[in-house]
Design brief:
The protein is of the alpha+beta class. The chain has two domains: about 1-85, Orthogonal Bundle (434 Repressor (Amino-terminal Domain)), CATH 1.10.260.40; about 90-240, 2-C-methyl-D-erythritol 2,4-cyclodiphosphate synthase (60s Ribosomal Protein L30, Chain: A, 2-Layer Sandwich). It has ten helices and seven strands. It has helices at about 5-15, 20-25, 30-35, 45-55, 75-85, 125-140, 145-150, 160-175, 195-210, 225; strands spanning about 1-5, 65, 90-110, 110-120, 180-185, 210-215, 230-240. The strands form two sheets. The protein has a five-stranded mixed β-sheet with strand order 4-3-7-5-6. It has a two-stranded antiparallel ribbon with strand order 1-2. Strand 5, helix 9 and strand 6 (about 210-215) form a beta-alpha-beta unit. The longest helix is centred in the middle third of the chain and has 13 residues, at about 125-140.
Length: about 240
Amino acid sequence: MLRLNRDLIIEIAKRKGGLSAVSRMLGTSRQNLDSMLQADKGCTLRTLGRLVDALGVPLGSLLVSDRADGSEPDALVAAFEARRKVSLHRVGHGYDIHRLKRGGCLMLAGVKVAEGFSPIAHSDGDVVLHAVTDALLGAMGLGDIGQSFPNTDRKWKGAASRIFVQATMEKIRAESFTVGNLDVTIMAERPRLAPFREAMTKNLAYLVGGVINVKAGTNEKCDSIGAGKAIAAHAVVLLTRSR
């Protein structure tokens, strides 16, 4: 039977934010991950695939064999390698909303779309880029934007939100994923966004790649968005990887 190399996995996990962060990437609880790492537990093909995805290390380094010569069962390795050749997909959803105030300018997807009012925010308050960042982090199992770029950190005060997207895309590319497509919906009573759709689409394509779609609508005068006191955005992203 093959067993997981517990010590190595714990060491790699430290660089990934700890075992709790790895358990989130695996879509499981910390308790379940601890169970997987117990010395008397075997590992399945599914477990191997999920761990290789999360840790970004070769198959062989994660395994310890019960065989005297340390060799790995050929059938399991062959099945695993066949799985790795199949396209892998991950989906993430992001959402952001900000209240609006008088003064300043409104940025959406890195494009200035209005002056005279702006979001109340720690950074530049770009709801589109915040939602996109959240969607990207979610697809990779990396928590949310508040964990990676907390508004309690002075470093992000007034920061351009493209920095959040770029930093997240570095993590995604490091795991050999690319953006397949990104679909954004902006909810705003003002300003009229149709004239800026092309510029926003181009900006997002530059930042993340893939097929980009930007939609915008009002909230039919409902709640704070409909009253023009807030603005919000949803983003859905598909990440793909081929091995």
